[in-house]
Amino acid sequence: MLAVKPSSLEPKTISGSTAIIPSLKSKNIQQTQASPFWFGGAASCLATFVSHPFDLAKVRLQTLRIENATLWSEFKLLSPARMFRTMWMIARTEGLPALYSGLSASLLRQGTYSTIRFGLYDQFKWYVAGDQKPTVRQLILCSTMAGALGGAFGNPSDVVNVRMQNDGQLPANQRRNYKNVVDGLVRICREEGPKVLMRGVGSSTNRAILITVSQMSSYDMFKQTMTDRFHLHDGLITHFTSSLLAGLVATTVCSPLDVIKTRIMSAHVNDRRNPVKIMTHMIKTEGVGSLFRGWMPAFVRLGPHTIVTFIVLEQLKEWHKRTLTTT
Question: Which of 30, 90, 142, 144 is the most buried (most CB within 10 A)?
Answer without folding.
Answer: 142
